[in-house]
């Protein structure tokens, strides 16, 4: 990062810009760039290159910190930059936004929100090419960045879903485009494929610090990407089909990003006490089927992922959430847990041998975890004094995901 000419902070000059590219329109942003392999045509040749996909961020008017060294306009824009050269492959702006299908009235594209959250892109696996990304904005909408065409001039940003308008929105939560009660999408969506090979997008509005109230509700959605064929040889239009929706009450905050693992979506939530956000409340870990609801006729019915102790073998009685603490929780994490023997460290080979080796060990598994403190720190309390909050981690073991078999040679196949 470098600063423009004659820019200083408290009288101290920053690093000067040398032989670098300048991308006008950047604002204040905490969203991480996404690195992906893209296939596109440039200078008359089709190439495969690694690119960085960067959202423009907030304008100065929406930033709590003064923009220093950038123009600070925070345009409604997305930059695709070639990593090897720093070359701008494409900057998508208001002119590249396709609002067809939008479910709330707007007077112009200037009514739309800014992109604040990290894009969720498909497919970023090694050896694959990115074809589209999903972007959350400051007004609770999800936009779809279409990059499938090899011609970058044909890339565009399409409307995909609005948390606060249309038939998908729970009753009482529809908000006009200019309403301050729209909650921004602050965490990147989670994307995964269902058994039909379709993309499923799970996203929520808000975070643990974002205000919630009777009019300003945090909402979580699961959507399936569908394609509607157009006449006249036009390309199919991507649309969102709602699988389920969870609208929280006035005191509850969504804590993302959601994670999809082995068919289930996980995230956290925090419910404030009546005395305010900075006091003890209730932290929960949520786990539900990522692409289907429990009752076909009720999109608010979630199929839980946690076995019910009263009926552990009856999946229809599974629990959707569990209380994990009394203070603001961390985002959820999913991690593998190695096989182990009681009393042996995972690298203590002597102990493992003495107790019978791997044959007597527990099987490796996966766990979903979330951290939450037992209490808040007293007002005005200095660090390392008084009663400190005890931070614990709640963990649940998960079933291993389905494995994928890859044929590497016909001589390895047996009847």
Features:
415 residues, mainly beta, five-stranded mixed sheet, five-stranded antiparallel sheet
- Sequence of strands across the biggest β-sheet: 7-11-10-9-8
Give the amount of beta strand, in percent.
Answer: 35-45%
Residue ranges: pLDDT <50 for 5 or more in a row? 67-71
Mean residue pLDDT: 82
SSE order, as H and E? EEEEEEEEEEEEEEEEEEEEEHEE
Strand tally is 23
Multimerization state: single chain
The computed structural class is mainly beta
Question: What does it look like?
Answer:
It is a single chain. The chain is mainly β. The protein is about 0% helix and about 35% strand. The strands form six sheets. It has a five-stranded mixed beta sheet, with no helix packed on it. Strands 16, 17, 18, 19 and 20 form a five-stranded antiparallel beta sheet that branches. Strand 5 (about 80) and strand 6 form a beta hairpin. The termini are far apart. The relative contact order is 0.08.
Please render the helix and strand layout as text.
Layout: E1 8-9, E2 12-13, E3 34-42, E4 45-55, E5 78-82, E6 88-92, E7 97-98, E8 120-122, E9 132-136, E10 141-146, E11 156-162, E12 190-193, E13 199-204, E14 219-228, E15 237-247, E16 252-261, E17 264-271, E18 282-295, E19 298-304, E20 321-325, E21 333-337, H1 349-354, E22 365-373, E23 391-398
Parallel strand pairs: 7-11
Antiparallel strand pairs: 1-2, 3-4, 4-5, 5-6, 8-9, 9-10, 10-11, 12-13, 13-14, 14-15, 16-17, 17-18, 18-19, 18-20, 21-22, 22-23
């Amino acid at each position: 990062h470098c600063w423009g000419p004659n820019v200083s902070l408290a009288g101290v000059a920053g690093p000067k810009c040398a032989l670098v590219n300048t991308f006008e329109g950047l604002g204040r942003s905490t969203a991480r760039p996404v690195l992906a392999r893209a296939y596109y045509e440039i200078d008359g040749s089709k190439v495969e290159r690694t690119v960085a996909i960067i959202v423009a961020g907030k304008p100065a008017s929406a930033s709590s910190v003064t923009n220093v060294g950038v123009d600070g306009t925070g345009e409604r824009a997305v930059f695709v930059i070639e990593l090897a050269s720093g070359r701008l492959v494409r900057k998508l702006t208001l002119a590249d936004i396709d609002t067809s299908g939008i479910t709330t009235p707007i007077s112009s594209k200037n009514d739309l929100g800014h992109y604040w959250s990290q894009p969720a892109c498909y497919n970023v696996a090694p050896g694959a090419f990115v074809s589209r990304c999903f972007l959350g904005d400051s007004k609770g909408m999800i936009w779809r960045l279409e990059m499938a065409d090899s011609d970058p001039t044909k890339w565009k940003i399409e409307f995909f879903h609005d948390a606060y308008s249309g038939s998908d929105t729970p009753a009482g939560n529809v908000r006009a485009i200019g309403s301050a009660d729209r909650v921004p999408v602050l965490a990147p969506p989670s994307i995964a494929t269902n058994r039909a090979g379709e993309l499923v997008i799970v996203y929520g509005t808000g975070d643990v610090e974002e205000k919630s109230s009777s009019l300003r509700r945090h909402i979580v959605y699961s959507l399936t990407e569908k394609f509607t064929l157009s006449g006249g040889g036009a390309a199919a239009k991507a649309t969102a089909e709602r699988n389920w929706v969870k609208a929280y009450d006035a005191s509850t905050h969504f804590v993302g990003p959601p994670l999809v693992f082995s068919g289930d979506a996980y995230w956290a939530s925090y419910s404030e006490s009546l005395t305010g956000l900075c006091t003890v409340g209730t932290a929960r870990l949520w786990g539900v089927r990522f692409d289907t609801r429990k009752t076909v006729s009720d999109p608010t019915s979630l199929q839980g992922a946690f076995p019910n102790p009263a009926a552990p073998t009856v999946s229809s009685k599974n629990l959707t959430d569990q209380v994990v603490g009394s203070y603001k929780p961390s985002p959820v994490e999913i991690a593998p847990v190695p096989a182990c023997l009681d009393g042996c460290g995972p690298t203590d080979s002597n102990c493992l041998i003495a107790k019978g080796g791997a044959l007597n060990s527990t099987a490796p598994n996966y766990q979903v975890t979330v951290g939450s403190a037992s209490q808040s720190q007293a007002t005005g309390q200095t660090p390392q004094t008084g009663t400190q909050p005890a931070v614990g981690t709640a963990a649940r073991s998960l079933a291993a995901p389905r494995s994928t078999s890859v044929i590497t040679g016909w001589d390895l196949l047996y009847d």
